[in-house]
Amino acid sequence: MIQLEAARKGIVTEEMAYVAEKEGVSPEFVREGVASGRIVIPRNPNHRTLRDFKGIGEGLSVKVNANLGTSYDYVNLEEEVEKARVAIQYGADTIMDLSTGGDLRAIRERILEVATVPLGTVPIYEAEFRAAKRKSFFDMSADELFQVIEEHGRQGVDYITVHVGVTLKNLEVYRNSSRTTGIVSRGGGLLAAWMLHRGEENPLYARFDDLLEIARTHDMTLSLGDGLRPGSLADSTDRAQIAELLTIGELVERARRAGVQAMVEGPGHIPLNEVATNVQIQKKLTGHAPFYILGMLPVDTAAGFDHIAGAIGGALAGWMGADMLCYLTPAEHLGLPTPGHVKEGVIAFKIAAHAADVARGNLRALERNRRMSEARYRLDWEGQFALCLYPEEARRLKEERGSRTKACSMCGPFCPMNLVEAVLRGKARMELQGAPYVQDPVG
Ligand code: SF4
What we know:
The chain is α/β, with parallel strands linked by helices. The protein is 50% helix and 8% strand. The radius of gyration is 24 Å and the shape is globular. The protein starts with a helix and ends in a 19-residue tail after the last helix. The relative contact order is 0.10. The site of iron/sulfur cluster has 7 residues, from loops.
């Protein structure tokens, strides 16, 4: 039985129980969230290697997605598999295969083999790629697109991005919006070009019921993509973005009625002062569907370091209520990322998500931070390594920089961590006298 249907019948599935255990909430809380559409659990039964189920939505920890995949310019299957492994090793909660070069089916197959977490795709890439190889991407037929979606479902893809809100009506709004950076979504741009060239409606919108049927068959979660998202601060929160969100809100309702899980993708380039507004209107207009954001990126000017800029926006958006952050890597806007870039991007966004969890009052995150501080105050290095997000990196740095005292090499004998307490207890030694200074830690 598919997740949403089970939840509505009052059944707690194995996946719901797993998510509840991992999150430290009750199974009933997760079931209710899934039944109401406020939580999704992407889980295609055909994805046999999926073990680490994820709940995305209100009341749960903030998740991080890592994108990978080949491009037209760069095809290296083993490197993409390596990226998937690296992303999962450093904590990506889901991964997306966005390949647009090489044998797309074979690439997906290999990535599925190592994907112990949910896998997402953007089927329009493959449909357009097939048509372009044959003749021209304008040659893609609606049937071809739905055939690709069906194939992804059969293969085991857990969630798909579908740019259903790029409609002819919303493209009119876009054309009257005088944007600085036009349409920057790869899938949204491809669809818009196809629609405008052929004068036809978006098949994902026109045949939304067919899409729901396929999604139901394979229990694929729909991620309703923001094809008209702003690609610059100048375009943030404009009419085209909001028009698309209104359409998506209606489609979330139709998906829920059909028993299909749906989350909503969001911007994009958004200044910090508009982040809260964006989260609030998304939640309001979509009946509190899980919000999966791309960044948000609060400056346009951090090329080479967009993972840091995006983590700043992501932390704030997560605090305000966004449920999953799509990472950015240092290569964002510049090129296809390497496995090293994937690692840096995942780490930056996991920290952002953790910061958001703390601000949202997530009890496990709060407790972990409290215990970390206690270990830090005791100069209990093993305790700190056990509690920090990336122990290996912390241990390596500590050892690399060495120390002649129990403290670290930053302040050494002048470590203030428990100096005053030691003085109050009459246990502090304040003389250096050539010998390594050993300070009594408190506790
Ligand atoms: S030596 Fe300085 S940096 Fe190192 S633990 Fe003590 S207070 Fe912190």
